[in-house]
UniProtKB/TrEMBL annotation:
Record InterPro entries: Band_7 (IPR001107), Band_7/SPFH_dom_sf (IPR036013), Prohibitin (IPR000163)
Protein name (Swiss-Prot/TrEMBL): Prohibitin
Originating organism: Planktothrix tepida PCC 9214
CDD domains: SPFH_prohibitin
Keyword tags: Coiled coil, Membrane, Transmembrane, Transmembrane helix
GO cellular component: a single term: membrane
Coiled coil stretches, renumbered: 133-160
Regions crossing the membrane: 12-33
Length: 285
């Protein structure tokens, strides 16, 4: 009985090791792919056909590995530079929203590897090339004033280029658009010149309006004088003149004058009026 105890202990150890190995194999025989993810199974380093979508999947233990790829929307900001149609330097920064095509994940695993490689080796350089295509179609002024058309051409070129790599572009936005200091100075000088030109046009129009107003006033005065002359020539014209003289004195703040009208019997003469109250001041006391 004493000799059986060591054998029993040894059997228990072997059984424990076997159960541990079996548990380890069982754990490594399955992989869980979460929603928004896709897996690529590699056996002995070789990527297998067929994408592992969300759920639980069997994989050969010990000799296989599953690379998980994020299928949700990825956002990266990529700088780009290019020359315009008139050979001006134009810089921009684009925010690219994209995701991986689940059907193409195996090819992406074979050709690009990780998501970081996808961004640095595919998205960034293709963004640069797409911006060159869009910028070369326009002058720098058109690139600034026709920003939406520039972005449209950029989106079209980028979608076409990234689609070949299994990358789906969802949206792009121009974060920043800048041009060379030389062009900025030229734009500033042009704006100053345009402001001066608009100011000159305004002054010219104002002078023209003032001249027209003076002409209108002169015409009005001439017409008033003509009408007054006709009134004086007509019957009762002397009374009109006397009334205007009295009103003029009143507007000047003087008291109602004692008016002396001298014209004799000659009706064609213009009546002469003066204030008798001013005689003392004139030295006729």
């Amino acid at each position: 009985m004493k000799r059986a105890e060591p054998q029993t202990g040894l059997t228990s150890i072997i059984l424990g090791i076997a159960l541990a190995i079996l548990a380890l194999i069982s754990v490594n025989s399955f992989v869980i792919v979460n929603p928004g993810q896709a897996g690529v199974l590699s056996i002995l380093g070789k990527a297998q056909d067929g994408v592992l979508l969300e759920g639980i999947h069997f994989k050969p233990p010990l000799v296989s590995n599953v690379d998980i790829y994020d299928l949700t929307v990825q956002k990266f900001e990529v700088p780009a530079q290019s020359s315009t149609k008139d050979l001006q330097q134009l810089s921009a920064s684009f925010a690219i929203n994209f995701r991986l095509d689940p059907v193409q994940v195996v090819r992406i695993r074979r050709e690009q590897g990780t998501l970081q490689n996808v961004v640095s080796k595919v998205v960034a350089p293709q963004t640069q090339e797409s911006f060159k295509i869009a910028a070369a179609k326009r002058t720098i002024e058109e690139a600034i004033t026709q920003r939406e058309l520039l972005k449209s051409d950029f989106d079209e070129a980028l979608n076409e280029r990234l689609d070949k790599y299994g990358i789906i572009v969802l949206d792009t936005s121009v974060v920043d658009l800048a041009f060379s200091p030389e062009f900025a100075k030229a734009v500033e000088e042009k704006q100053i010149a345009e402001q001066r030109a608009r100011r000159a046009v305004y002054i010219a129009k104002e002078a023209e309006q003032q001249a027209q107003a003076d002409i209108n006033r002169a015409k009005g005065t001439a017409e008033a004088q003509r009408l007054l002359a006709e009134t004086l020539k007509a019957t009762g014209g002397q009374l009109v003149l006397q009334k205007e003289a009295i009103e003029a004195w009143e507007k000047g703040g003087a008291q109602m004058p004692k008016v002396l009208i001298l014209n004799g019997d000659n009706k064609s003469m213009v009546p002469f009026l003066f204030n008798l109250g001013n005689l003392p001041e004139m030295g006729y006391e």
